[in-house]
Each structure stands twice: as C-alpha cells, then as structure tokens.
Automatic annotation (TrEMBL):
Keywords: Repeat, TPR repeat. This is Tetratricopeptide repeat protein. InterPro entries: TPR-like_helical_dom_sf, TPR_rpt, Ycf3. Pfam families: TPR_1, TPR_11, TPR_8. GO terms for biological process: receptor-mediated virion attachment to host cell. Gene3D superfamilies: Tetratricopeptide repeat domain. It comes from Streptomyces alkaliphilus. PROSITE patterns: TPR.
C-alpha cells in the first residue's frame, strides 16, 4: 500500500483529467509539464485498457484498494483481542498519507474499522489540526519518554546484558533513548570498553531528510548553546551559514520554539554534542570560544552601568551572560577556565541558593558535555550548598582551600563565610574570617566594616569604631559603614554622633530604610517622638513589610500613649513575622496599659514560648499575674527572670512588691534592697522601700527612704532629657507620700505640659492608687489628688 500511496497525487490528477475538469481547478494547481504528462498518461490508460474496473484500479488505486484493505483488517481483527497498525517515522510519511489515515479511521468513506483496531502514528511531529478537525478529540497523545533505569535494565537483560558497569555505560551514552539502548544491547557487550558510541548513528537518524550540507552543519553547531537565538546563531556560524535567519530551526521536530528562541530536545542535544567533541576537537574549541566571546561582549556592555560586582551579581541579565560565558569557556578549555569558574562560585554563594543552583548546574553541564571530572566534583559540592544552606560554610571552606582560586577572590570567600557565621550568631568564628580578609586586603572596606559590626555585636565598641572609621576614611560615601557606626554611637549613648552618621548615610542613599529606622530609634531615645515617627514612617513607606520598623513605630506610639495606633503597628509586624517575640511582648505591654490583662497574658506567653529566656517578657507577665491577683504565678515568672538575669533590678523590685502584697515584708525588703544595690542612683526602689516600711508601721524609716528617693529622683529629672516625665512623676509620688500637696500639684502641672506627660500619668495611676496615706494626714486630700490625676488622664485618653 505505501508504494501505491506515494504516487496517489499524480494518479488522482490523471483520474480527474479522464473525467474532465471544466473548472480548471486542477490545472491551476499544476505546472504545465506536470499536467501534460498526466494527460498523456491518462489518455494511454483509456485507449489501452478496455476493462473499466482495471482502468479504475490504475487511475484511483487508493480509492479502489483501501476498502479491500479495511475488509482484510476487519477479518484479521475478528479472532484477535486487538490489532495495532503502526505508522512509524510519521514526520516523514505523515505529509503524504495523513488525510488518507484520517479517512480510514473515520470510517465514513471506506467502511468502519472494528473497535479493537488501534492506529498508532509514531514520530517526532504532531498531527495537523486542520486535517483532523473534531476527530482530534478522539486522538490520545502519548509522549514517549526515555527509558527509566529499570526499564532499560529490563530490555538489556533480555539481551543478556546484566553487568552493572556495562549497563551504566549504555545508559550514559544513550540517555535512555529506547532505539539506541536496543541498538547497543544487540551487540551483547560484556565490558564497558566493548560498548560503542551511538552518537553518530543517532545524529544520522535525527538529520534524516536534511540533504543540505550547510544546514546539517548548522544544526550540529546550534546544539552547543543551551538555547539559540538570532544573535547566537550569527555568532556561532560565522562561516558557511545558511542564507536564511535561524527561524528554520523551529521547524525541526526535535526543536522547541519560544518567542524567537529555540531549544533542542535534551537527548538529541547530548548525542550531537558528543559527536561534535569526538569528531573534531579543534572545531569544538573554536565554536565554544566564539560563543564565550559573544556572551563576554554582552556582559561587558551591561557593565557600563553595572559598575561594581555587587550590582552585577544582582542583575539577572548579567548573571545569565556570565553563566553562559563560563560554560562555554569550560567546554573550550576547562583547565584555563576553572579558576574563573571557581571565582564565580564564590560570588554565587554570596548571592544565595537560586544563583548558586544555577552556577552549579552550569558546572555540571559543562563537566558532562566536556567529560571534565573536576567541574563535576565542584558542581556536586555547590549543589549540596544550595540545597542545604547550613552547608554553605563548608562549600566556602572548600573554595578557600582550592589551589586554583585567584587570591583576590579568596578575600571575598573569607568575607562571605564570615557573614554566614554572623548569621548563625557564631561571632567569634566570624571575626576570624574577617581578620583573615583584612589581612589579605587591608584596604577592603567591606571586610573592615563587617569586622566592625562583629566587634559591635560582641560589645567591643572601641574596636568597632576603629574599623568603621578606617572603612569610611577609605570610602567616605560608604553608606552602610556610616549607618553601622551610627548604630555603634547609639549603643554608647552618643546620640548626637549617631544622628550625624545616620544623616550622612541617608543623604547618600535617601531610600536606605534601615538607616532611617535606626535614626528614628535614636530620635525616640532623645525624646523627639515626632521626628522618630517621621523616620519610621518613611522607612515603612519604602518597605511596607519592614516588620522591625513597624514594631519600633508601634513602641513610639505606645510611648506617646496612642495605644490604638501601637496595636495596629504591632499587629502588622506580627502578621509579617508570627515568630517576632519582641513585637509580641511589646503588644502585650500595650494590652496591659489598656487594662486588657487577658490579651496581655496571651502575647507574653507566646513571646516566652518563642524565647524561653526572654527575661523582660517573663517579668512583664509576672507583673500582669500580680495585678490579676495571681501572686503565685507572678512569683514563678519573677523568679525565672531573675534566674536568667540575677542583676535585673526591675524584676527584683517587682517581686519585692509581690512579697509586700502577700504580707512577706522581709522578703520584700530583701528584693528592694538588692535592687537599690544594683542601681544606687535609681530613686524608684528607694520609694518602694519607703512604702514597705510605711505598711509595716515604721514611719521614721519610711521618711528616711523617701528623702533618699527624692534626692535621686530630682537628680534623674535634671539629667533625664527625654525621660523627664517619667522621673518627674516619681518626684510627684514622693510628695504625695509626704502629704506635700502644693509641691505635688506643681509637679502635676508640669507633667500636663510635657508631650508625654499624660501617657506617663496613665502608667502611674496604679502606683498612686496603691500609695498608703501618711499617718496623721488627711486621707481626703490624697483621694482628691488621685482624682485630679485621673481627670488629666481621661481628658487625653477618653477610652480608658
């Protein structure tokens, strides 16, 4: 049948000519010579074959023989479970028989096929939608994937090939392509050396039907890049290129087109690459060098605007060209290119798992394509680092130890490994890497600033300032070093110097959210809450998911008594980071200030669950328990906080108050005395000792301690700056305890005039309510004063 079908175009035309073609449609579609030959042939049939049936058979063999074919197929299928008709190499025969196959399957023209007859079209090209129409829905598309290892092993075993090394070699050479596995299996090799390379046979199969030598060579050359576009097409085919552009590649059955870019099927590409490399090593090197040069030019073009390594490695286009460039360099000359590949590996480690995976994949691909074991070894190491971030330190260690790593890159490897140690909070080891980086390159500002930050985190602020200073001296526009030095000044309490550094960093980079937020924190430390809110707001505007800035702004709102706004900010920060223990504890404090002790306990509890050694959260939960009357739970929390931090004066004083409320005055005095010893300048604890003595009925001792408290609190007011309202409220409490109502009223008026005075008075109400009145004085005056304070609070916070 196929031989007859191959001629059906000419025969069909001749048949129409015999019957006449008054429309001229057939003639319009044929050349004059072809039409003349058809008419001559048809006339010969009419005059020489007198039997009409025989003439029809000759003139329309397809129409005459197909029904007979269908009848015979029906007869064959009658006694069988199923009959499969396979039309192989469909990409070659399909154009000539597709419509005929459709008509046979449809059953309307030649008779219906039995249901147990299955027609299979096997090949590289898909069916033509315009031919099949609605019938396309009844066609099942089956993708023939390469053999799995188990499937290949089963086929090889049938041929007696079971030696593991032989099986592995066949799988490597064939990629699991069934026809190639079968071809090699038939030779029944018993040793890997007996396995022939099927690349040439495979490539000949792929190129069947390509007779143009230039096209055949172009197809092979275009397999070298992982994907090809017009620029790469012209770069790799500088000589002997087909006249047309690269669009014709998209018509190849093993090529996938995607918006002007073309990608070979991986199995096809592997066979072509191996043939290329073994057939002509020199041309292999030349073509890869051309491609590397092309990507180098594209990379250098981008470097006009990407002026430093950090920006380059952060640009996806630059990274893609660099990866492709190094891939082709490794294929062209792996020994020369390996140091370049290792240098890139260091930067890929710094860029993160995504870039590192891409770089490792490139090394693996180059190692496989060029059979270079060293590249494959490094690919395996990098892949482990990309999949398990904790192993990144190990990968960087391998790179640092590599003989082929350029010395100028080893500095960065130490720097990046130091950063990884810092992220893991292993600051001692991080310092060793930063020390080594500075030793290798004393003027590397990144290494200096990174070491400075580690010094600061370890509490060595003098060393930190020295490193930051040197880095800024070398690069006066190094915004990160300026901001880090500002943070160091803040830690030392030199807020003025901190503001200068933060300001300069922000001047250099107006969108530096972290520096803005840090400056906001410094403004708040100086009592300038308005400026703090501006900086936090700008930082959040630049980065709406900046949880730390949101939480810090929440804390500023809390300090100003705007608890509703504080809850909004804390809530958003926690939504962004549900395990943000500090934000949870701060929200707990805000709930506490609003009197919502139940919500406060929930937040404190969650913060402690996340950080069981969070002493402040423990002490704050203890205070909440105490205020709810659960003194036993309060003592447990205060005890744990003090166990974690034996010099935590506020926790000691809070436990002292709990003991006092339980009537254990001796224990209370012991805790208060210890708090005074730890912080002798803090008048608050002297006040609490005095209150305890008054409760015990020892008024003379109480008055002595209030005298001590008043002197210390007054000194704190003078030195307070931003905290003036807090310390002045302590002075007011002492005057109340001593029934000095004119002085206490004067302090109240001053507090009313301070920006954060009403918020502080709100916090002081529980202390004022718990204050015992002085024996022999008028309790009514103390009650009236309390009401005056409460009126001020309610005026500013009507929701209370």
């Amino acid at each position: 049948v196929p031989a007859v079908l191959a001629a059906r175009g000419t025969l069909g035309v001749a048949g129409l000519a015999l019957m006449g073609d008054p429309t001229g449609v057939v003639a319009a579609g044929l050349g004059a010579d072809q039409l003349a030959r058809g008419l001559d042939w048809a006339w010969a049939v009419r005059t020489r074959i007198k039997d009409q049936g025989e003439a029809q058979l000759v003139l329309d063999p397809v129409g005459e023989l197909t029904p007979v074919f269908v009848e015979d197929l029906t007869e064959v299928a009658r006694d069988r479970r199923s009959v499969v008709v396979i039309l192989d190499v469909w990409e070659r025969i399909g154009p000539g028989v597709e419509e005929w196959v459709r008509d046979v399957v449809a059953g309307e023209r030649y008779g219906e096929l039995p249901l147990n007859v299955i027609v299979v079209m096997a090949g590289q090209s898909a069916l033509t939608p315009g031919v099949w129409g609605e019938m396309a829905r009844e066609v099942v598309q089956v993708s023939l994937e390469p053999f799995t290892e188990a499937e290949a092993g089963e086929l090889l075993a049938r041929h007696g090939v079971v030696e593991e090394s032989v099986v592995a070699t066949i799988l490597r050479l064939t990629g699991g392509l069934p026809v190639l596995v079968d071809m090699l299996a038939r030779a029944r090799p018993t040793d890997p050396g007996q396995v022939g390379d099927p690349a040439e046979t495979a490539v000949e199969r792929f190129l069947a039907g390509q007779s143009d030598p230039a096209r055949r060579e172009a197809i092979l050359a275009c397999a070298l890049p992982t994907e090809i576009d017009e620029d790469l097409y012209r770069a790799v085919l500088t000589d002997g290129r087909p006249e047309e552009d690269c669009g014709w590649l998209g018509n190849l059955p093993f090529v996938t087109a995607d918006g002007g870019r073309y990608r070979y099927h991986q199995l096809v590409r592997e066979q072509m690459l191996r043939l290329h490399r073994t057939r002509s090593p020199r041309r292999w090197r030349d073509l890869h060098t051309r491609l590397a040069d092309h990507h180098a030019r594209e990379r250098e073009h981008l470097e006009v605007t990407l002026t430093d390594d950090g920006r380059r490695w952060g640009d996806d286009r630059w990274v893609a060209h660099h990866i492709a460039e190094v891939h082709h360099l490794l294929c062209a000359d792996p020994h020369t290119a390996l140091p370049v590949a290792l240098a890139g590996s260091v930067w890929a480690c710094a860029r993160g798992p995504g870039t590192l995976r891409a770089w490792a994949a490139m090394l693996q691909q180059a190692g496989v394509e060029n059979d270079h074991r060293e590249a494959l070894k490094w690919a395996e190491r990098l892949i482990s680092g990309s999949e398990e971030p904790e192993r990144l330190v190990t990968v960087l260690g391998h790179l640092i130890a590599a003989v082929d790593l350029p010395s100028e890159v080893r500095v960065w490897a130490h720097l990046f490994r130091g950063w990884e140690h810092s992220r893991a909070r292993d600051r001692v080891v991080a310092s060793l890497d930063f020390d080594r980086a500075v030793e290798l390159d004393p003027d590397n500002v990144w290494a200096l600033a990174s070491r400075g930050r580690t010094h600061r985190e370890r509490g060595d602020h003098a060393a930190a300032l020295a490193d930051f200073g040197r880095a800024i001296e070398l690069d006066p526009e190094y915004a990160w070093a300026l901001a880090e030095r500002g943070r160091t000044h803040h830690a030392l309490g030199d807020h003025a110097a901190a503001l200068v550094d933060f300001g300069r960093a922000i001047e250099l980079d107006p969108e530096y959210a972290w520096a803005l937020a840090e400056r906001g924190r410094t403004h708040r430390a100086l009592g300038d809450h308005a400026a703090a809110l501006v900086d936090f707001g700008r930082a959040i505007e630049l980065d709406p998911e900046y949880a730390w800035a949101l939480a810090e702004r929440g804390r500023t709102h809390h300090a100003l008594g705007d608890h509703a706004a504080a809850l909004v900010d804390f809530g958003r920060a926690i939504e962004l980071d549900p395990e943000y223990a500090w934000a949870l504890a701060e929200r707990g404090r805000t709930h506490h200030a609003l009197g919502d002790h139940a919500a406060a306990l929930v937040d404190f509890g969650r913060a402690i669950e996340l950080d069981p050694e969070y002493a402040w959260a423990l002490a704050s939960r203890g205070r909440t328990h105490r205020e709810l009357g659960d003194h036993a739970a309060a003592l447990v929390d205060f005890g744990r906080a003090i166990e974690l931090d034996p010099e935590y004066a506020w926790a000691l004083a809070s436990r002292g108050r709990t003991h006092r409320e339980l009537g254990d005055h001796a224990a209370a005095l012991a805790d208060y005395t210890r708090a005074v010893e730890l912080n002798p300048k803090d008048g608050r604890w002297c006040h609490e000792v005095a209150v305890t003595y008054r409760v015990m009925g020892r008024e003379q001792e109480a008055r002595w301690w209030w005298e001590q408290a008043l002197g210390k609190l007054a000194a704190s007011v003078r030195a307070a700056g931003k905290d003036e309202a807090w310390w002045r409220s302590g002075v007011m409490l002492v005057y109340c305890a001593r029934s000095e109502w004119q002085k206490s009223s004067a302090e109240l008026r001053i507090l009313q005039s301070l920006a954060d005075g009403p918020a502080v008075l709100r916090r002081r109400l529980p202390d004022l309510d718990a204050l015992p009145f002085e024996p022999g004085s008028s309790e009514r005056l103390l009650v009236e004063f309390r009401e005056s304070v409460r009126a001020v609070v309610e005026e500013h916070f009507p929701e209370r």
